[in-house]
Amino acid sequence: MEEAKSKLRVNRYAHLLYWEQNCYLFHGESNKVYKIPYKLFKALKQEKIDEIEPSYIDILTSEQILVPEQFNEYEESKIKFQKAKYLDSSVSSYSLTIGTSMNCNFGCFYCYEQGVKEEGTIAMPRQVADQTLEFIKRNVPQSTPLKITWYGGEPLLGLDSILYISQSLINLGYQIEGGIITNGYLLTSQTAEQLVKEANVHFAQITIDGPRNIHNKRRVLKGGGPTYDVIMDNIKNASKFISNISVRINVDKSNRDYLYDLLEELKSMPSNVLPSIAPVREENSTFSNEERKREILFSEQEFAEFTKEFLWAIKRTTLEPFFGCSAIQENSYVIDADGYLYKCWNEIGRREQSVGDVWEGITNYELYKKWLSFGDSDFPESCQSCSVFPSCRGGKCPYNILYPESGDGHWCMPEKFNFDDLLIWYIEREIPQNSIINLDENYIYQYNYSINTNAVPQQCQNYCYCVSDKQVANSVDNTSSNCSNYCYCISDKQT
Amino acid sequence: MRLVRYSNLVTFEGDFYVFNQMNGTILQISYDTYKALKNQDYDSISEEEKSFLANRGFLVKDTYDEKAILDLDIQRISHARPSTFSLAIGPTMSCNFNCFYCFEQDFRHKTPPWRKMSKETADQTIKFVQNTIPVSTPLEIIWYGGEPLLAPEVIEYLGTRLQEVGYQFKDNETFIITNGYYLTEKNVKKLVDTVKLRRAQVTIDGPRNIHNRRRPLIDGTGTYDVIMGNVAIAAHYLDSIVLKINVDKTNVEYVPDLLDIIKNELPSNVFPSVDSVATETVENPKFSSICFTAQEYASVYKQYFFLRNDLPRPSLTCSANTESGFGIDDEGYLYKCWEELGKKSVAVGNVWEGITNYELYKKWLTLDTSKYPEKCESCSILPLCGAGHCPNKILFPDHYSNSIDCIPAKWFLEDFLKSYIKKHRNSIEKSITLQRRQ
């Protein structure tokens, strides 16, 4: 036993935080937060495993906070990642991203669909929509919840197809839940109501890039023309129908100084309208002018530095383990307005990168396999020793790892660079306080008791009440009955 | 019009604040005002908002000279008829402890029988007070030493006599700085009844074994259990007890242990307060290696800022550089700075003759920001720091072996402000524009 103990070490994905006289441990792989006694905190921090109270060893090892010396958390984590691609999606839901238009009424300078959307199909033809329905019928069991994200181009140029496909699926008995990524220009009150009622849309992402004069310079109508006032008006009206609206703010060095101006404007929006911030990046070789690129695009470090102040405005739940996106999961496709299938949103409309079409299903198995087998050796070398790997997995974007030549390559998640701040935010504001596991003596006692019914509880008088009362989480039936008998026995003896 | 120098613009989770170091106030402002102040675009601020900000000292006229204003403040505080008079009295300069870092190493008595203030000196002290301080001026009395509770009867006698001859205590309370060993229920009860003792400062340097190594009795015996026992009981009789934790590199890692103990074992009116063991207080030069530099200490202090509930305040003066404060030792010598109690060579007088060393006394009253070290010239937190908040070091650099230390806020003011904002978000005053908006 002693020998085994000396061979333990602290898991690399276990993060320790001493904050306002409380000690926390966050496990990046299990996404659990523990409150721990300072003594334990110190021993873990200093990696002095032999100073940990023996009663804690069992739970710390079973939660993989302590692991054997030769344990390889990186490999383990990658195995979990591989499994999740298949298990998660096939069991729980099927997700489709459908571009009902591959054209766009906007002309944003940084769009990664440049070269695609200009000549793209304006609205998905009826026969493509019908064939898409056939494809779904063939591939998705009716009982599987179906998540559809309407995308494009600008999906509302193909509103008819959104409503037609949704209604048809509902009539066929599918349970669908919709979301839409739109520039918001055509999202009138009437359209929003239709989307909710006829396509069960719960979520919309609309991009605003700054206050009026900045946004109007960046996100113009095709051929020129302002869009700010129309979009802001639409958001306000649409928020009465659509339950969650995310205002996506694409930032680079040319609009960074106006972020607060926009956030101020957004304060007047209803509470179901929330901002989220993302960097403008080079994808699909959008920026042909190298000088302009250097001038306005953030580097990985610069963006990380910039976000420090905006943790409260960045997309939430950034610490949950990342199990991949639709691109690498089974039971997930991107479909363009001409019926071509893709794995990644970034590729929509670029037919040479499609994996098939709604008529024939998968035709390019090589490419399909490349996406599905993503993982393991694909991760950048720097991930191997990184302590935030479970949340980040090389920057939460397989595309950037698989196709580094099309843009500026993989970025680590920005919060990695101010991880303690993020952790404080996560623990204090983001996760429900009752989900924090309090590893105090009482908990340990109950835990050890529940896994080892032979253990004679030395302090039973103090604890028997709790044990029989609360029914320890891990206890199996015979344990709990033993326990209540035992307690009864003691309290009986006492009186 | 312009934003006052020594102010800070802070953003916190989408709200905007401005902090004024000149008067230690914070205000929540609108984004428009924030932007205008940041870009020095004062014309864009409404007249109403402008006058609101001006009334609170955030906007000042272009000719405003912050340093001159601070100097005038120092001068006024030094000389003006005081609203209270502060006396730090050492009823004994003996101490039963032997702490290695004590700055009274050279001039305190270390062996029993403990020397205490005689009745003659005590009576003369009363006369001196009567001759010096108008009876209508409330007294702010700090019982100090040495260890004052080695002579509780002197405290009782002096405190009672002062009240008998008509003096009131400021806020009707008295404060004692003690090592806590004799802060027994009996002593506390008596001092509460007779001299209106309401607050105490006691030092604990770590959990039991650490504290006992650092703060033993003269014979080396540990003191932890006695002190903790005393504090737990004394807290019931007093308004508050500050537990001072003196840290250096050798005990800093035990601070969280101690804080846990305090939280779990002591009443809630016992407040821990982290402080640094300053190099100059350590007699033996070999100790300088265990002391933190100012910047090192700042990053330690940052961890414990949450213990505080207050904003940083301007701190340019102390009782030493005013005409309204004296320290008095057990032989009746008068000092300007408490830290000098017992060090007769720097006494400014005695209770029999009053001030005898006028040169020295006068020099204490000449504090001015122009006497600050050069590094303070362009410092952005000068009013909060006041050149390390130690007039003694500024005026008498030859008394000290090391340089003036900057305060932690020099490195972490923004963190401190944010920590305050987070705690008090709902009670921070809003500018008029924001008030109108609601």
Could you please say which CATH topology of the largest domain in chain B applies here? TIM Barrel
- According to DSSP, the number of beta strands of chain A is 16
Low-confidence stretches of chain B: none
* Termini Cα gap of chain A: 39 Å
**How many domains, in number, for the residues of chain B?**
2
CATH superfamily of the largest domain in chain B: Aldolase class I
CATH superfamily of the largest domain in chain A, by name, is Aldolase class I
Order of strands, main sheet of chain B, comes to: 11-10-9-8-7-6-12-13-14-15
Helix content of chain A: 25-40%
CATH structural class of the largest domain in chain A: Alpha Beta
Radius of gyration of chain A: 26 Å
String of helices and strands of chain B: EEEEHHEHEHEHEHEHHEHEHEEEEHHHHH
**How far is the first residue's CA from the last residue's CA of chain B?**
27 Å
Q: Pick out the low-confidence regions of chain A.
A: 1-5, 455-495
Task: Report the count of strand segments of chain B.
Answer: 15
Supply Rg of chain B. 23 Å
Q: Kindly estimate the percentage of residues of chain B that lie in beta strands according to DSSP.
A: 15-25%
Q: What's the layout of helices and strands?
A:
The complex is a heterodimer of chains A (495) and B (438).
Chain A: H1 2-6, E1 8-10, E2 14-19, E3 22-27, E4 32-36, H2 38-45, H3 54-62, E5 66-68, H4 73-92, E6 94-99, H5 126-139, E7 146-151, H6 159-171, E8 176-182, H7 189-199, E9 201-207, H8 212-218, H9 228-238, E10 244-251, H10 259-266, E11 273-279, H11 290-296, H12 300-307, E12 332-335, E13 340-342, E14 356-357, E15 361-362, H13 365-372, H14 389-392, H15 398-402, H16 419-430, E16 437-438, H17 441-451, H18 460-470, H19 477-494
Parallel strand pairs in A: 4-16, 6-7, 6-12, 7-8, 8-9, 9-10, 10-11
Antiparallel strand pairs in A: 1-5, 2-3, 3-4, 12-13, 13-14, 14-15
Helix pairs in contact in A: 3-17, 5-6, 6-7, 18-19
Chain B: E1 2-3, E2 7-12, E3 15-20, E4 25-29, H1 31-38, H2 47-55, E5 59-60, H3 66-79, E6 85-89, H4 119-132, E7 139-143, H5 152-164, E8 174-178, H6 185-195, E9 197-203, H7 208-214, H8 224-234, E10 240-247, H9 255-265, E11 270-276, H10 294-303, E12 325-328, E13 333-335, E14 349-350, E15 354-355, H11 358-364, H12 382-389, H13 391-395, H14 409-424, H15 432-437
Parallel strand pairs in B: 6-7, 6-12, 7-8, 8-9, 9-10, 10-11
Antiparallel strand pairs in B: 1-5, 2-3, 3-4, 12-13, 13-14, 14-15
Helix pairs in contact in B: 4-5, 5-6, 10-14
